Give the backbone structure.
Amino acid sequence: RMQLVESGGGSVQAGGSLRLSCDASGYTPEVYCIGWFRQAPGKEREAVAGIMTGGVTKYYTDSVEGHFTISQDNTRKMKYLQINNLKPEDTAMYYCAARSGFCSPLAHDYDTWGQGTQVAVSS
């Protein structure tokens, strides 16, 4: 079974940057997607980006395109979410999640989740 551990969150001022990491260990399917989601207090969990196994196919939701960058390392086990020009509305718990097959923007399509890493942005 795959396990996911996020790290890299923190408290930053608006305009700053963070790089979130998602460490995938254990069994990994031949073809899978790692999605990044975020959930702000009182709001639903929303997708922000996803990356397929090979690292070439990626997606971003409209609200974060140009603002977030998803990538992975050469081992394909570490996935990253680079967030530049952070804004207070980016404050949320950020999660990575995995599913076999292609990426989906729907949280319920993912069956493996990390514990989350908190991002807090002050103005």
Summary: The chain has no helices and eleven strands. The two ends are 40 Å apart (CA to CA).
